[in-house]
Structure formats: C-alpha cells, structure tokens
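User: I would dearly like some help making sense of a protein record. This is the protein in question:
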Amino acid sequence: MPDSMNVLERLLHQTTVRHRVLTSNIANVDTPNYRAKDVAFDQVLGNEMQMATTDPKHLQTSSPAGGSGSVSSEESQLWADKNNVEMDQEVAKMTQNAMLFEAGITLLRKRIQMFKTALKTT
C-alpha cells in the first residue's frame, strides 16, 4: 500500500479516536469533577506531515514526540462543580475534527479513483 494511503488511514483513525473523546466530553458536561480530554493532534502523524527543509534558510520545525496521538486531560478554568467542559469549545473542536475527517475521506476517495483509472487504461 502506498505511503499516502497509510497516512490517510492513520488520519481517519485518529479523527475517529478524537471524535469519541470529544463526544465523551459533551456527554459529561454536567458531571462533577470531570476534566475535558483531547487528542494531541500535533503528534498524530509523526514525521509524515513534517515540512522538509531543503535550504538552510528554511525555518526549522520541531518534530513531534510520538505518532500515537495520546489522549490527555485539558487544564483550563474549572466551574463551581470542578468540571472544565465548555460546550461551545467542544462543538467547535468536533466541527474542526469532522472537517478534517471529510478532507481525509475525499483524498482517499480520489486516490482510489486514480488507481481504478490507472487499472482501466492498462
């Protein structure tokens, strides 16, 4: 399987994991002492999404610590019940995550379509 397909597969898997985490946050919006969680998305795809520096004048980027996209608790201001879930932020994160998932699906669909076209012409 080509590397781009592997990257897209991992992207879709991680957006699915993040969706579960965000829906859990929303489900626990009124649960006392619940801490909102999120997936560290900057670590999700590892080096595949790193910008290449082909010239010494290019800006250096830090490499992600891992490729698994670990789930971590968010440290933000707590409500009176010691819960830190903010519904509007969680909905915004879910919208962003859904858009990323749709983009991944679209890219995967186009990639498969390219393979089908190549097979028909040979």
